[in-house]
Specification:
Layout lengths: L1 H21 L7 H6 L3 H4 L3 E5 L2 E5 L6 H4 L7 H22 L1 H22 L9 H15 L8 E3 L2 E3 L2
Antiparallel strand pairs: 1-2, 3-4
């Protein structure tokens, strides 16, 4: 659970920084404006809007693909996301190990960011759901996998009869 706790800690730390620089929702500050995902900011440039912000970007801001996964739009948003990350981490991290769980988290973050860019290229997007969606699909695929007819993944542990 080390990776799970570390990822939760990073997310909470970044949210505290958002609050310090951007008011009660965390969406008014420069951390949000310079870290939220927007296709125009990642691509060739243009206007991006969302979360009460409108920014003009010259483009080429590829870091937003990663940073947007650690930004949140309010207390409820981060609370629910961290609860789900904790819940999924309890199931998946013991089965995969710290390194592979972290790799899955970041692969899901990148894939989710690409999906968000396809669906709303001119909107500012933040949050961890894209990070844990891949983890959820990994849980489903692992729980239905059978090896020698006796393998069952249940809450992150394999049990043999």
């Amino acid at each position: 659970m080390q990776a799970t706790y570390a990822l939760i800690g990073i997310n909470v730390f970044v949210f505290v920084l958002q609050l310090l620089g951007g008011g009660p929702s965390g969406t008014d500050g420069s951390l949000f404006a310079h870290g939220a995902l927007c296709g125009n900011a990642v691509g060739d440039g243009g206007i991006c809007g969302g979360g009460g912000q409108v920014i003009q970007s010259a483009g080429g801001e590829w870091w937003r693909i990663i940073t947007s996964g650690f930004l949140h739009s309010g207390f409820l948003h981060i609370a629910l996301n961290m609860y789900i990350l904790y819940w999924l981490g309890q199931m998946i991290e013991p089965a995969l190990g710290h390194l592979r769980f972290t790799a899955l988290y970041f692969a899901s973050l990148i894939a989710g960011s690409i999906g968000a860019l396809l669906l709303s290229p001119d909107r500012l997007t933040v949050g961890a759901p894209k990070n844990w969606m891949g983890s959820t699909s990994r849980t489903k695929s692992s729980s239905s996998r059978v090896s020698n007819g006796r393998f069952l993944l249940s809450y992150g542990r394999s049990w043999r009869r």
